[in-house]
Structure to design on (225 residues):
């Protein structure tokens, strides 16, 4: 069974630029999550989708971050415009049942 | 409010030593799940164990064992006879009804040959 796929693996941008990350969950997994992991910290949930709908986006900085999950499969997370403090690893996870999340390899973002 | 505390920032051991990683959690819910994840240098989070709040039995899987004590709100993880490949950052996490994972700050384990 293929795991959670993410791209790109690394991205370097200048502040005020835009960036987008892509995630393809495990086939059949209805729930998809985006986490932000700042260096030296544990991952923090940004947004949770159940199929096409948003379950929890309470910690998503909506003035600059947006996310969508088209057709209940792939998802894209966008940052526009980026700030220095957005430098982090962005992790995507998916699950087919409550409490069983599988994580992708992450995208390491550096904002200069 | 939910919170997970991993007080040990970094632990260094020599191969074959036993090591215990501590995890203390806070929650108001009676139904919750606790997890341990391993994050090797490659960065991917690897699931190790899930434990629900109604099951306080300790669990052993090979060299890994977990001790869950509701009375002290702790869910500690022990690696027996550690190996260099165990070197990683280990995260404890809590999940309540919404399935959202609340992570601790992690413990970096370094195992030297």
């Amino acid at each position: 069974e293929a795991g959670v796929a993410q791209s790109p693996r690394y991205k370097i941008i200048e502040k005020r630029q835009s960036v987008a990350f892509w995630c393809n969950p495990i086939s059949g997994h209805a729930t998809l999550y985006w986490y932000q992991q700042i260096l030296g910290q544990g991952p923090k949930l940004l947004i949770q989708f159940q199929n096409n709908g948003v379950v929890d986006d309470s910690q998503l900085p909506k003035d600059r971050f947006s996310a969508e999950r088209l057709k209940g499969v792939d998802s894209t997370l966008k940052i526009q415009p980026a700030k220095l403090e957005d430098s982090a690893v962005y992790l995507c996870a998916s699950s087919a049942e409550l409490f069983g999340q599988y994580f992708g390899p992450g995208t390491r973002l550096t904002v200069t | 409010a939910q919170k997970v505390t991993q007080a040990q920032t970094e632990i260094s051991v020599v191969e074959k030593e036993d090591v215990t990683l501590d995890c203390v959690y806070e929650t108001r819910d009676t139904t919750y799940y606790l997890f341990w994840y391993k994050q090797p240098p490659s960065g991917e989070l690897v699931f190790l164990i899930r434990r629900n709040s109604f099951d306080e039995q300790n669990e052993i899987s090979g060299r890994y064992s977990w001790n869950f004590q509701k009375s002290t709100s702790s869910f500690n993880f022990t690696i027996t006879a550690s190996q260099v490949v165990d070197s990683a950052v280990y995260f404890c996490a809590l999940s309540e009804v919404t399935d959202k994972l609340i992570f601790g700050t992690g413990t970096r384990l370094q195992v030297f040959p």
